[in-house]
Amino acid sequence: MPSKRRLLLIDASDSTRAILFKEITSRAPDLDIIACGSGKEALTAVKRFEFEIITTGIALPDTDGYQLIEEIRQTPKNKDTAIFVVSGDTDTHVMGAAMEDTDAVTAYFDKAEGHKALVNFILNYLGTHNEPPIKILYVDKSATSTAITTGIMERNNIEYFHFRDVTEALDFLKQDIVHHTNCSIDIMVTDLMLTSNVNGFELIQTIRNELKLDYLTLPILLMTIEPGEDERTDFTAIFGAGTNDFITKPVDEDDLLSRLQTLVNIKRQSEALNP
User: Is 93 a residue whose pLDDT tops 70?
Assistant: First the structure.
């Protein structure tokens, strides 16, 4: 593993390189990205630097993509680097590749899926710490619950916006939608017991029905208390209100982080499929 994480983008299209460079840089600012438009430029880069991932198209101005991969595999610094072939005809290329080393290509990506899907593919391969930061809207009036939950978020570098008041939380969400022309918040976490006038169910229904933010646009995690021995969890009410998932208090850190990751994956996948 290189001391500085590096990505090499090889594509003959200037616009494609620019789009990918901008998108990946915005989501993984600590990643060192080098973009090349020819095989000659790429070989100069792979001889000088060690990369964690290399992506390449097939049609390059001075060489064939598969020939370039064979040459990359002969360089000491990148003989084991993950290499993704980006092509509009992956099935034909996979079946027709005449490379002696069938393991030379780590994965094939269909360019028809779009650049956002490719960016997600690259960053998912690199690992979760290169995913975009999670932004949480957190609504809870309990001082104890808030201290525990925000402590978990802070320890794990999760950006959050906490509100005790439902109206203030809704106003914040409305302003966010106006400012970004969509919802930039990844997940809302809300307690069930909020005020004497509004509970978590009603808040969620307002978001789903009035703000028109669906399960994919704004996943919602509801926090509830553990039911007593003579009580049962009201799944109908929880999911009928529009909740994606729920978690019982006191919140366990690993459980909370796991559920947040699942929900943010839902949002990211939706964004990748609907750019």
Answer: no
How many C-beta atoms lie closer than 10 Å to residue 256's C-beta? 20
Residue linked to tokens 């064979």: 70
Q: Which domains does the chain have, with CATH numbers?
A: 6-130 (3.40.50.2300), 135-273 (3.40.50.2300)
Tokens of 177: 């939608």
DSSP 8-state symbol, 36? E
- The pLDDT confidence band at residue 94, using thresholds 50, 70 and 90, is very low
Could you give the angle at the alpha carbon of 9 between the alpha carbons of 70 and 34, nearest 5°?
Answer: 110
Mean pLDDT in residue range 125-152: 82
Cβ-in-10-Å burial (0-12, 13-18, 19+) of 175 comes to: exposed
- Predicted TM-score (pTM) of this structure: 0.55
Instruction: Say which residues have a Cβ less than 8 Å from residue 224's Cβ, sequence separation at least 6.
Output: 192, 233, 238, 246, 247, 248, 249
State the Cα angle at 184 between 190 and 244, rounded to 5°: 40
- Mean pLDDT on 38-58: 94
Which residue bears the tokens 């208090």? 249
Place of tokens 């703000």: 211
Determine phi and psi for 234, rounding to 5 degrees: -85, 80
**DSSP per residue, 235-269:** HHHHHHTT-SEEEEESPPHHHHHHHHHHHHHHHHH
